[in-house]
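WARN no homologs supplied; continuing
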Amino acid sequence: MSESADFFGDAKKELEAYIENRILLAKMQATHQLSQKMAIVVVFTLILTLLGFALVFGGITTAYYLTDLTGSLVKGFGYVAAFFGVTLCVLLLFRKKLITQVVNLIIKLLFK
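OK structure emitted
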């Protein structure tokens, strides 16, 4: 009787240790995945911010360059504004397809 009591006592301790280890493993895996996803969000935010600055300053630089070519400040900035306007119209025309592509990309990144 004593052997079976020791067996079940030891089995209970091992089962509790196993469950604690599995819970710890699940927490560590969740933390790892969450930290990877957060890192992706931070990197994409930085990239988009830098891209935005590049577009703004590149547009201003291009406008001044076109001002020198055309001899008119209004024409230089007007051409750049027209370019950005046309780009915006194209993006608006294809927004549903672009949204689908972005959603698919986000899903792939999240469930990687």
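The longest helix spans residues 2-70.
OK
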